[in-house]
């Protein structure tokens, strides 16, 4: 169960617009009492989807969607499914969400990932060294794979093919 009174968190969690008509504050609080905060030991909170315990993290920046466009989400689910992963055993964080810190150290501290995939997120925006597209950089704790967003791959099948060849190796390692 999730508990929150944070309007940004509620916006990310809810897909419909909610209106109140004659509800008391107690009724509204009883509904929100079933939503727990998404926070961990670092003290910072992130709004994310999935499970961070497997150490596989996808970082994206989609301003128009909580995580992916419907077409991109379908492609993402099929892609990770081909490698025995699912939305339930990976973590996905959207840095376009104003609640999520755009700070690599905080991301590392909170998620403690071993494998990070930057989907359309430039490494420089996280103050990381240059990583070519469809290449990865090994750090002390985690390996970072930099690739295109799904929208970029939809527009160019060569990018999609190059991504798939390297991504299979990255996840399998």
Q: Can you offer a commentary on this structure?
A:
This protein is an alpha/beta fold and 173 residues long. It has two domains: 1-37, no CATH class; 44-172, 3-Layer(aba) Sandwich (Uracil-DNA Glycosylase, subunit E). It contains six helices and six strands; from the N terminus they run ααββαβαβββαα. The protein has helices at residues 7-13, 25-32, 70-81, 104-111, 150-155, 157-172; strands at residues 48-50, 56-60, 91-94, 115-119, 135-138, 143-147. It has a six-stranded mixed beta sheet, with helices on one face. The longest helix is centred in the C-terminal third of the chain and has 16 residues, at 157-172. It is globular and about 35 Å long.
